């Protein structure tokens, strides 16, 4: 299965602007029930990513005020992105290699298309393995 198979059905891409306050970002994460978002510049270009752990590590743990800080100040700039054509198995290997739980998805024009989480990938892989196991079970124990 490819990234496009999973991302293609999504209706919304979760992102915030660089100049959004960290408080606004935290509210957005809570409202959308996601753990990370892409950060876009004024032209819509992807410049970073912010996760819940960025907010807790760089703001809350440092006793800084989220209302006074901007997304650009705490976002991660070392972006690990994947194309729509990449396989989910390769994405999982990339996550393991870099120690991350989310990958940024970009299309052939380098336009941000969304994020792929380890949870998204594992859900698909588990379902695939369950379907295979059920098929084997039906073969071994046919209904008579």
In short:
The protein has 144 residues and is α/β, with parallel strands linked by helices. It contains 6 helices and 6 strands; from the N terminus they run H-E-H-E-E-H-H-E-H-E-E-H.
For the record, give the distance between the C-alpha atoms at the N and C termini, rounded to a whole number.
Answer: 34 Å
**Order of adjacent strands in the largest pleated sheet:** 1-2-3
Radius of gyration: 18 Å
* Low-confidence residue ranges: none
Report the strand count.
6
The CATH topology is what? CBS-domain
Order of helices and strands: HEHEEHHEHEEH
**Helix run count:** 6
Would you identify the CATH architecture? Roll
CATH superfamily: CBS-domain
Helical content class: 40-55%
Q: What number of domains?
A: 1
Query: How much strand?
Result: 15-25%
Largest sheet: 3 strands, mixed
Query: What is the C-level CATH assignment?
Result: Alpha Beta
Average pLDDT reading: 89
Any idea what the shape is? Answer: elongated
Structural class: alpha/beta
Structural features, described:
With 144 residues, this protein is an alpha/beta fold. It contains 6 helices and 6 strands; from the N terminus they run αβαββααβαββα. The strands form 2 sheets. A 3-stranded mixed β-sheet has the order 1-2-3. Strands 4-5-6 form a 3-stranded mixed β-sheet. α5 (88-98) packs across α6. The longest helix has 23 residues, at 118-140.
